[in-house]
Design brief:
single chain, 284 residues, mainly beta, 3 helices, globular
């Protein structure tokens, strides 16, 4: 595999998705069962850069498709689409189109139409037979079935704050970390040279825990004390509570009564940490 990024269990075995769109299924005792491939090349072309995001139990793959802006500032993207690619390579639906926006953003002296990354990045999550999408700078969360059917939408009670230097530094570090060699220099120059945001995005991540149906976890953008904060929201958009992680820990899965975090030290060594979920004591 080239950088495995997601796993899925279809009831009889385990599937692995990598960054090239290769999908390999195994039996529960580890024997290869079948191979699939999301046809990234057929939708990549010159217009989109395709990045696999998630593997669903149905065998479908969810991918992000940022549209490139050729002839403009290097590396800039105008809008991002979520594509749902069914088993066997058929594109079954398009999810997460940005709402129409007549505003403008300036990319190194070149006026470009919004949406504009990173504040308008498309966030996606899958779990419990559903897909959730959210534009990072807007409070609207939209739910889809794994077949691409729209199930509903709601707004979350988030407010944007001003961008801090630490927020920008973290954005750069997150985008530089996966690349090596000369690519690291290029990505650093690209991210550092983007127009500075006046307002921070509302959200930085989405999670749909299989073990906690009816809940959507949304990471608030910004970490003034270095701690990630996740809001736990119902399907109707009601805020049920918040979970705060220790500094330097990233949330990547949630069980019925625990959360799994990924801790990374200064040498980039990663450790999986298990935390118990504790409900706050009722006030009297």
């Amino acid at each position: 595999f080239r950088d495995p990024i997601d796993l899925a269990f279809d009831g009889t075995g385990l599937g692995v998705l990598d960054r090239d769109g290769r999908i390999e299924w195994f039996t529960t005792d580890g024997r290869p069962r079948r191979s699939d491939r999301a046809p990234l090349g057929s939708v990549r072309g010159e217009r989109f850069n395709i990045t696999p995001l998630a593997l669903l139990a149905s065998g479908a793959a969810l991918v992000a498709a940022p549209e490139r802006m050729f002839g403009r500032a290097r590396g800039e993207y105008r809008q991002q689409i979520g594509l749902l690619i069914g088993r066997g390579g058929r594109i079954t639906d398009t999810v997460g189109w940005f709402a129409h926006d007549s505003g403008r953003a300036d990319a190194q002296g070149v006026p470009v139409p919004r949406p504009y990354l990173p504040s308008t990045g498309l966030l996606t999550a899958s779990g419990g037979g559903r897909i959730a999408t959210m534009t990072a700078d807007r409070p609207r969360v939209t739910l889809y079935s794994t077949a691409g059917r729209r199930l509903g939408a709601f707004d979350v009670p988030f407010r944007a704050t001003s961008v801090s230097d630490s927020d920008l530094s973290r954005l750069i570090a997150d985008q530089v970390r996966p690349v090596t060699g000369n690519d690291r220099r290029v990505v650093t120059e690209w991210v550092s040279g983007r127009p500075r945001l006046g307002r921070a995005p509302l959200a930085a991540g989405l999670l749909l825990p299989d073990a906690r149906p009816g809940e959507i976890w949304i990471e608030r953008f910004g970490r003034p004390d270095g701690r990630a904060t996740w809001a736990v929201v119902s399907d109707a958009g009601t805020l049920r509570g918040e979970v705060r992680l220790p500094p330097g820990v990233e949330l990547f899965d949630v069980g019925a009564d625990f959360a799994l975090g990924l801790a990374r030290d200064t040498d980039d060594i990663e450790t999986v940490v298990r935390f118990a979920l504790v409900a706050p004591a009722p006030t009297r």
